[in-house]
Amino acid sequence: FLMQTSEKLQKICIRNLVRKYCRGVTAERKAQLQQKVVTSAVFRGKKEGYLQSLNQPFLDTRLKESDINPKVLQLIQGEKIKYVTPVVKYDRNGFKARDRLLVLTQSSAYVVEMAKIKQKIDYTTLKGISTSNLSDGIVVIHVPEDNKQKGDVILQCEHVFETVTKLCMLANKQNLVKVVKGSLQFRIGSGKEGTMVFAVGQEPQVFKAKTGQLTVV
């Protein structure tokens, strides 16, 4: 009887401690935990650098709304901005690197150049998100093959775990994130496809190889 009473008291004590902890969790802390759970589901055991990212809290955004050109803000008026980060975008054909902003709203992702919106991707049309298993920050956003889209978006992000987590959570498509090994295909436009190759080397670099492929080291 004493053993049964002790076990019941232990369970009650643990339940009270859990309830106390949950009630003490702030909204900010809860959001962090929710994001980290998604990051774990997508990247754990798949991408290099994941373990090192565990103790790094995700920021709400890397840039403020005031850092965005007023003309762009006017164009996306009515959509609440949720996350902004600087990125490097690679052209789909010549693979030239260009500084851009990735702006994530409640309903769409925008690739922004200064005062221009270069590409808009509605989350409802998002076909997939690809990254490599290596420590690079490359992210490919796959879009539908239609007249509204120029082709898939090739980006390099400094905070790849954070950016991908924010994107797939806002789009509610974490099941569409793929961590690939070796290479991946991306759509250039007009039914054409390109190839991206991932390799390990002494110096990180992204360049167009003699084969015409985009090579990420």
Structural class based on helices, strands and sheet pairing: alpha+beta
Discrete helix count:
5
Low-pLDDT regions: none
Helix proportion range: 25-40%
Which shape, going by the Cα principal axes? globular
Can you tell me the CATH class? Mainly Beta
* Total count of domains: 1
Largest sheet: 8 strands, mixed
CATH superfamily: Pleckstrin-homology domain (PH domain)/Phosphotyrosine-binding domain (PTB)
Secondary-structure element sequence?
HHHHEEEEEEEHEEEEE
Strand content: 25-35%
> Rg from C-alpha positions?
21 Å
Instruction: Count all strands and give the number.
Output: 12
Structural topology:
Blueprint: H1 2-24, H2 27-43, H3 50-53, H4 70-75, E1 81-90, E2 97-105, E3 108-113, E4 116-122, E5 128-132, E6 138-142, E7 153-156, H5 160-171, E8 177-180, E9 183-189, E10 192-198, E11 206-208, E12 214-216
Parallel strand pairs: 5-8, 10-12
Antiparallel strand pairs: 1-2, 1-7, 2-3, 3-4, 5-6, 6-7, 9-10, 11-12
GO molecular function: cytoskeletal motor activity
InterPro entries: Myosin_TH1 (IPR010926)
Protein name: Unconventional myosin-Ih
